[in-house]
Amino acid sequence: MKALIVLTLTLNSILPAIQGATLDAEALKVWTDYITAADLRMKSRLSGERPFLWIDEPSDRRQRVAAGETVIAPAIGNGLRNGPNVLIHHWMGAIFIPHGTLRQLTSILHAYDRYKDFYRPFVAESRVCATRPTGREFALILQYRTMFGSYAYELEYVAREYVVNEWRRYSIVNTPVVREITGYRTAAERALPPGTGTGFVWRLHTISRYEQRENGVYLELEALALTRNIPGPLRWMVSPLVKRMSMDSLEAALLKTRNATHAMNTMTEVLAARPWVM
């Protein structure tokens, strides 16, 4: 309790001075270069230089995932890389969906307007914006509840899916626009200009890989995020919390996707057994 009081007093004395932040061109270029390199590394999984799935690289990850564990690990170092006044977060996560099918999983992943149902309370609102030959565009409002308070962001996404073969697919989802919302769902609600605000979320980027095997489907999420850097006085205290939040968010996304796929699988079985049910 004493440690909690000290922590609260420390935060209250420091946070007012660090609320404002701006994403500048230099930091954005570092992010763009980083995600370009991550997308290029995906090609080595397609060429056979590396296994298509991260869990099939030499490790015990495949066995752990097949046994029902949700495996989360940093893709770089401790999951964080420093940039000019920003942090790049890069994590890997994998899960197995027994008895699930590639068709069921992709149906869930493509139902962008229903993300508010699949991923609540993290996703507060969701809608499809456009469907084009080059990909789909959708928008979400995300809510983060942290020890610093509650924050809301409106994100515009561009999703592109690639078919490798009949049992393998992958997708790349990018967020070119992120707006912080202050006073969300109050009379004072206001969307800030992109690149301004607290800086707890500047950009998100996800590479998803999914593979159908004889007893189910495997799902991997390679999650990247750009945020403001952690000020020096808070770094020792906040870094472990940031790491924990990254892991928890990725695990929740994987588990909720599996739950939604299971629900679809159950409904399919019910309709197959009772074809008169509409």
Helix content range:
25-40%
Sketch the major β-sheet: 10 strands, antiparallel
* CATH fold naming: Alpha-D-Glucose-1,6-Bisphosphate, Chain A, domain 4
Q: If you compute it from the alpha carbons, what radius of gyration comes out, rounded to the nearest whole angstrom?
A: 20 Å
Shape: globular
Structural class: alpha+beta
Q: Class, according to the CATH hierarchy? A: Alpha Beta
The average pLDDT score comes to 86
* CATH H-level superfamily title: START domain
Q: How many beta-strand runs? A: 12
Total count of helical runs of at least 4 residues: 6
Order of helices and strands: HEHHEEEHHEEEEEEEEH
Distance between the termini: 56 Å
User: Architecture, CATH level 2?
Assistant: 2-Layer Sandwich
What proportion of the residues form beta strands (DSSP E)?
35-45%
Which stretches are poorly predicted, pLDDT < 50 over at least 5 residues?
A: 1-18, 267-278
Question: What is the count of structural domains?
Answer: 1
Tell me what the structure shows.
35% of the residues lie in helices and 38% in strands. By secondary structure, the protein is of the alpha+beta class. The chain has one domain (27-272): START domain (Alpha-D-Glucose-1,6-Bisphosphate, Chain A, domain 4, 2-Layer Sandwich), CATH 3.30.530. Strands 2, 3, 4, 5, 6, 7, 8, 9, 11 and 12 form a ten-stranded antiparallel β-sheet that branches. α4 crosses α6 (232-273). The protein is globular and about 50 Å long.
